[in-house]
Amino acid sequence: MDWSIWTFCYAEGRLPLDFVRGTPIASNLGHTPVPMIFSLLQSTDGKLVLVDTGFSGGVSMTGPGFKNFVRSDELLQRHDIDPHEIDTLVLTHLHFDHAGNIDAFPNARIYVQRYEYESWKQVIAEFGHDGVTKDKWPFSSLDINTFATLDAAIADGRVTMLDGDHELCEGITCRLAKDTHSFGIQWLEVATSNGAYALAGDVCYTYFNVERMWPPGYLQGNAWNILREMRRIKAIVGDDLARMLPGHDIDIFTRHRSGAPRGTRIAELHLAPGHDSLIGPSDA
Question: What pTM was estimated for this model as a whole?
Fold first, then answer.
């Protein structure tokens, strides 16, 4: 079994550099483009696994809008991938830019960490009595509509709650990074013929975070736990981080083979034997 790994940029924001790299090490150094991403994994026997769903109309907590926004289902369709054929959806966590377009994938079984779901439910009950809006720190990365959609999927029996590390299928393992960027964020370890890849998600926004072992500036968990989890990721991918995918680094599209054949950026982290590139010939 082998897996192809593609990462799509469905929108682009712009944030102060220390938001993603950390403070004070990157403070007062201006702004940086920040890609909003989701990933698609395809096995050599045809299984499709979607990692996160983006948003359907996201509003940033910092005010400025997003550039070049394309909904995740529409973006997949541009590449002749039918959203209805996605049978497995992994939500790394429940922030608005990762879990806001769930209902576009009606046939997918959804995997989310129980601790992530229940903790946010508790926060909404405890702090949301006067509204769940992005101008309040507890909800600065939340879209309350996500929970209505997810609860409907739970009622339909389409959601599997995970309790810690979990082997999703042959070659893919979900890794719980408890109380790091979010309560129950998870990242994926993917076995390929080129070695193990770590789809680190927002455990680390950038390659810089892991290279310098410096937590991002924005988090809703524990910075010490982030350091420990980045160390676990680094042990899998090696010191050069060639097999790591961070959550919001524009360098994803320079460190990996990439292109924009249908108008939006794609990084092709690994192409399994027998699969066609979504970018085109390697000499193109």
Answer: 0.95
